[in-house]
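User:
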Amino acid sequence: MDRLATEYTARAIIIQGSALLVCQGVGENLCHLPGGHLDAGESPEYALRREIQEEIGGTVTGMTAVGTLETEWYRGGKLDTKPVRERMHLYRVNALFPPIEGVAYRGEDHLRARWILLSDLMKEHLMPREVIPYIWNTGGR
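Assistant: Predicted structure:
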């Protein structure tokens, strides 16, 4: 039996006005909350600050833990791909960002960050979907 390794991540719920910041791989259909994997010995808070800086050049000015989510989901949203088991530390984050260029922030070459309207959240391919109640509960209504 193939056992899945758990990926440990920290992700940010960043809301400004009526919009949520999401990240999306170049050429991919799915999007996710900003953040990423914890490196060895990193706290979730430190990893999240580092990831926000690396991914979009943002500086975290405040964060509040909102929960830990354990889930399995499929990369690309396809059931024939290997599932991902993720233990995600979620935070409501305030951050400062560089001026936006075009429609997306460009930090890492393979990734773009963009604002989506909260009213369009259910139309987006946000993964994993289990993060949506956390977004609503942190002021995303």
